[in-house]
Design goal:
Belongs to the gluconeogenesis factor family. Required for morphogenesis under gluconeogenic growth conditions. It comes from Corynebacterium frankenforstense DSM 45800. With 319 residues, this protein is α/β, with parallel strands linked by helices. The chain folds into 3 domains: 162 residues; 96 residues, no CATH class; 33 residues, no CATH class. It is 42% helix and 19% strand. It contains 13 helices and 12 strands. The strands form 3 sheets. The chain has a 7-stranded parallel β-sheet, with helices on both faces. Helix 3 runs antiparallel to helix 4 and helix 11 runs parallel beside helix 12.
């Protein structure tokens, strides 16, 4: 099973993947973060930003969370230093990855070493082995809503008050890592999403060799749609709009299923529009209960790993 994404969305997908096939997981992770600890590391050391890679490693760490909370390895990787000094805000896992990169000169070797130290049940690979930047065309930043301006950087794109029209990578169409392509080609199930649409999900599809590998794979290809629009980059987006954006940004992409939470309040007409949009990617819509709930049974805007795992294994069995 190969899961593409970044940030909190990929974290939840990997927790689900552990329940599907814990012996055979690869996370293919975006490397465009430019904020916080990751941004400082890429600026000061010139390395790929480690934050999303660290989160994926934490999701796959061997001593997985239980009723008492995260296992020690995951908790340590995610721990951030406090205070106001040079270490303030840095995550332990980010520094560990960066230190290993400096020692060995190879980001994949560093990630594999951390995976070994934490008894990971899977492998984490960057989609590219060099840092990337995201540039977005954004409308609504001026008095005239027709004016489109470029916003650059993952943090700026994710937090823009304007409306993102499309994104591109800088440099354009970078070479994918050989490990990422091999993981896609060898998978029986490929997932894309959920997550920040323009800054964590779509960037993978701006690497043309990744799209080619997905299309050539015999795996079941599933887009896990977000539960709702996110403040900032997809503010006001419908579920249909998410699919249209993916088809617009990667017109050659072909997938098999688009997974939508069955609790989405969609009319019969909206479901028809959603199915029509999915057709642009060659996909069918599958509805399943995949959202998590709080202690009072109220829906939360985050995928439930057990429900997501059940939906993915069900689709794979039916394929």
């Amino acid at each position: 099973m190969t899961c593409l994404g970044g940030g909190h969305g990929l974290y939840q997908t990997l927790r689900a993947a552990r329940l599907c096939d814990p012996a055979n997981i690869t996370a293919v992770v975006t490397v465009a973060d430019d904020g916080g600890s990751s941004g400082r590391i890429r600026r000061e050391l010139g390395q790929v930003p480690p934050g999303d890679l660290r989160m994926a490693l934490a999701a796959l760490a061997g001593d997985r969370e239980d009723a008492e909370g995260p296992g020690l390895s995951a908790e340590l990787l995610q721990h951030r230093f406090g205070g106001h000094g040079a270490l303030a805000g840095h995550a332990v896992g980010n520094l560990l990855i960066s230190g290993l990169v400096e020692l060995g000169g190879d980001v994949q070797k560093a990630l594999d070493t951390v995976a070994s130290l934490t008894h990971s049940c899977g492998r984490v690979v960057p989609v590219c082995t060099r840092p990337l930047d995201i540039a977005a065309e954004v409308a609504g930043l001026d008095d005239d809503p027709r004016v489109v301006r470029e916003v650059r950087g993952q943090v700026a794109v994710a937090s823009t008050p304007g409306s993102v029209r499309r994104v591109r990578l800088v440099p354009s169409d970078p070479p994918a890592s050989s490990q990422a392509l091999a993981a896609i080609r060898g998978a029986d199930l490929i997932t894309l999403g959920p997550g920040s649409w323009f800054s964590s999900v779509i960037p993978h599809l701006m690497v043309h060799s990744v799209v080619d590998a997905i299309n050539a794979s015999d795996a079941l290809k599933v887009v896990v749609l977000n539960l709702s629009a996110e403040p900032g980059e997809t503010q006001g987006f419908s579920l249909e709009r998410h699919i249209h954006i993916m088809a617009q940004q990667a017109p050659a992409l072909r997938v098999d299923r688009i997974l939508v939470d069955s609790d989405s309040l969609l009319s019969k007409a909206e479901r028809a529009y959603l199915s029509r949009a999915a057709g642009r990617l060659g996909a069918e819509i599958v509805f399943a209960d995949v959202h998590s709930c709080d202690e009072n049974g109220m829906p939360r805007n985050v995928h439930d790993p057990e429900k997501l795992a059940a939906a993915l294994t069900g689709m794979l069995a039916a394929d």
